[in-house]
Design brief:
mainly alpha, about 290 residues, globular, 11 helices, single chain
């Protein structure tokens, strides 16, 4: 449970840092690319074996990391825009409601079974993430902005399902750091290619603030994935339970952080959602 708790903590910090990007005028794309370079380097540092770059493409999981790298940078940019335009709680809910995608795939592909209490917990979790994020006060939002949480939902669900598939079928436990580092390296290369193409229209400028923001984001980003992979090795909880507890707890914690740090509005419905989140975690984790 320690691995799962640490994954929740570091994942929640990501949403807070995204919000701080907007507050301190950090350029999101450049910071996100720096973040992936940082996360890649942290993964390399945590890998205990000698690293031979020419051996990495020979691993079964290598080509999957390339796809994940592209998804990571696309979804991260969407998450950042959602946090900045619609709020931390909306971004976290859009991201973490996506747990239903790997849960359903876990039931289908890995023949995982859910009892009455765990099923009830997952249903309550869906209600929890909705009520924790719903806003009572009207807010002027452009219609195209409403597509952001939908795209975040789909992208995050595909990422979680892919990570579970790779962990289940291709990645050994001692390879978690180098696997994570390769994913982040692929994301960094994707971002660098994008800004290289962009530089033909707009000259690149080195901004110290973007670098600091990227480093601050990269460290919790690495550990959020690293500890999630370790949590998925848990023999007591299946992947459906892990993803449910992980994602609902992140919604609850990041919503509370949004209230405390950014004075985001919270209503009785929001508090009800947080209460449902606690109940759903208890049902999934302890029954």
């Amino acid at each position: 449970m320690l691995d799962l708790s640490l994954s929740i903590l570091f994942s929640s910090l990501i949403f807070v840092i995204f919000k701080l990007f907007d507050t301190h005028k950090v350029q999101t794309l450049y910071a996100i690319i720096t973040n992936y370079i940082t996360a890649c380097l942290v993964g390399i540092l945590f890998y205990s074996k000698p690293i031979q770059l020419y051996e990495i493409p020979k691993n079964d999981w290598f080509y999957g990391t390339l796809l994940l790298g592209v998804l990571f940078i696309v979804v991260f940019n969407l998450m950042a825009k959602t946090s900045q335009r619609l709020g931390v709680s909306v971004a976290s809910v859009a991201t973490k409601m996506s747990f239903v995608i790997p849960v359903i795939l876990g039931l289908i592909l890995y023949n995982e079974k859910l009892g009455f209490f765990k099923t009830s917990g997952i249903v309550l979790a869906l209600a929890a993430v909705y009520f924790a994020s719903v806003k009572d006060t009207p807010r002027a939002i452009q219609k195209k902005s409403l597509l952001l949480p939908v795209m975040v939902f789909l992208g995050s669900g595909i990422i979680d399902a892919s990570i579970k598939y790779m962990e289940e079928n291709h990645v050994a436990t001692d390879e978690f750091p180098i696997f994570s580092a390769t994913v982040f390296g692929a994301a960094a290369c994707t971002g660098l290619l994008f800004i290289l193409l962009k530089s033909f229209k707009e000259p690149l400028k080195i901004n110290f603030k973007n670098i600091i923001g990227g480093i601050a984001l990269g460290i919790p980003n690495f550990f959020s994935i690293f500890f999630l992979l370790r949590a998925l090795q848990n023999e007591t909880l299946n992947s459906a339970s892990i993803f449910t507890v992980n994602n609902v707890a992140i919604v609850m914690f990041s919503t509370l952080l949004g209230i405390v740090l950014f004075q985001e509005k919270i209503s009785p419905k929001n508090w009800g959602g947080i209460a449902l989140a606690v109940l759903s975690i208890l049902l999934v984790a302890f029954f």
